[in-house]
């Protein structure tokens, strides 16, 4: 797991456990993709976005609906 992936996982765990533990709470994740085109979505970039989607879906399904990307 890369340092960035480790950070994303830690941040998600912290948000869901401490910052926004209530169902009514919302989490907003901002990913700046300015300058990114669909042709760039390959290799590590694509793997990163797949990691974020899988993390929310696989490990936090009960709160995934509270996410806004």
Describe what you observe in this structure:
- With 69 residues, the chain is mainly α.
- The protein has one domain (3-68).
- It is built from two helices and two strands, in the order αβαβ.
- A two-stranded parallel ribbon has the order 1-2.
- The longest helix has 17 residues, at 3-19.
- It is elongated, with a radius of gyration of 13 Å.
Termini separation comes to: 22 Å
Please write the string of helix (H) and strand (E) elements: HEHE
Strand neighbour order, sheet with most strands = 1-2
Number of helices: 2
Overall domain count:
1
Secondary structural class = mainly alpha
Strand % is 5-15%
Question: What are the segments in which pLDDT stays under 50 over at least 5 consecutive residues?
Answer: none
- Helical fraction equals 40-55%
The 3D shape can be described as: elongated
Radius of gyration: 13 Å
Q: Tell me about the biggest sheet?
A: 2 strands, parallel
Number of strands: 2
Average pLDDT taken over every residue = 76
What secondary-structure arrangement, pairings included, does this model have?
Layout: H1 3-19, E1 27-28, H2 43-59, E2 67-68
Parallel strand pairs: 1-2
């Amino acid at each position: 797991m890369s340092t960035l992936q480790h950070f994303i996982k830690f941040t998600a765990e912290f948000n869901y456990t401490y910052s926004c533990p209530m169902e009514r709470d919302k989490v907003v994740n901002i990913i700046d993709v300015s300058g990114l085109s669909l042709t760039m979505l390959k290799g590590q970039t694509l793997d990163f976005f797949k990691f974020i989607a899988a993390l929310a879906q696989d490990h936090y399904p009960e709160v995934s609906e509270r996410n806004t990307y």
